[in-house]
Every structure is written in structure tokens, then in C-alpha cells.
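ERR on first pass: missing label on line 2. Operator R.T. fixed the label and resubmitted. Corrected input:
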Amino acid sequence: DADVTQTPRNRITKTGKRIMLECSQTKGHDRMYWYRQDPGLGLRLIYYSFDVKDINKGEISDGYSVSRQAQAKFSLSLESAIPNQTALYFCATARTGDYGYTFGSGTRLTVV
Amino acid sequence: AQSVAQPEDQVNVAEGNPLTVKCTYSVSGNPYLFWYVQYPNRGLQFLLKYITGDNLVKGSYGFEAEFNKSQTSFHLKKPSALVSDSALYFCAVRDNHMDSNYQLIWGAGTKLIIKP
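pass 2 clean. output:
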């Protein structure tokens, strides 16, 4: 099994719909992150969490919300999806004091 | 402002030749620098990092990177390219401001194509 699992892998949804992307990890890491990837823009941080009670906005949090249900689970919600949220979404984990991130395989989201 | 630049969108190299993927950075304080690789339909994988010490850092899959403080660069290199090295490569720098919670700042990525 993968260390960081994202579900679903692919999703097509309609404008205005609410959608949730899920991330779970078996690394035992305390820090979790949600990024979106757009061609030519690299990775942009949406939200991050250092533990269950600590949630922080990243550079592009508008239109998104998150929930850290447990140390191992961190979900991203799009309350009302719009076409410019079409992107590849990655979850990543890290341990405090370490410098490397472990990434999930990504969720490709298309909003039509 | 802290930033990372990868000046080449794409790098083409013949198999067996040396490869270089360029990265320059702007950061206050001592830089913490990273390279990640993304293969098609996969997440990013950690390749190597520079925190302190020797300017030449060795990483996974035969890659290495050279930290050059005077040129604010951290170029990724490999002496002999393989077709399987074809992927998207990302450079990242840690934001050393406490109020940013030391987040990573990412370059836009460089597509590396190795031709047989």
C-alpha cells in the first residue's frame, strides 16, 4: 500500500457542485499539506496542518476548505466548484524536524 | 521576497550525455534547497537536499546538485543521462521566515526529455 493515499484518482464534476478530496497516510507524519499543480505554475499551497488542531491557509485558499479528521487523514473540499479549479491536486506529508515531503499520487479534478 | 526560478521549461539531452537542470533562488538567510522529480501520473519524489556542508550533494538515481552561494544557484546534474530520467523536475527552497511556518517555495518545473 502507498504511504500517502489520495482518493479519488480522477474526478469530473459540474460547476457549483461540492466535492471532497481525501488523503490518508501511514507514515506517522504530523504535518500534512494540500497543493494544486497547474502547468507552468509549479505547486501552490492551498492549506496545511501541523496537527489535528492546527489548520493554516496557504497562498491560494479561497474557494477551498479542509478538515483534519485525525493525524492520518486530511481532506480538501471545494464548496462550490468552478472551472478554474480544474487542476492536479496533491497531498503531502512531513515530519516536524525533517525536510523531505512524501507526496500522494494526486487527484486529477476537472470541473465542467 | 523568497523565490525560485527554473529558467528552462524543457531540456533535451541525448542518452549517455551529461545533463543539467538549472535552478536559481532568492532567499534571506541560509538557504535550504531541494530537488524533486515527478514521473507521469505519479506524485513528486524527493531526490536530494542541501542544508549545510559540502556544496556538492548526491541524491537518488545517480543525480547530484551543486550549491553555489555566490551565484545563488542549485543546478541538478547527472554525468550520463538515461531515457528513464525523462520526467518533470522541481526545485524548491524553504522560506526561512517564521511567520510563513517555513513553507517550501516551488519552481515552475523543468521537463527533461532524454532521447535514445
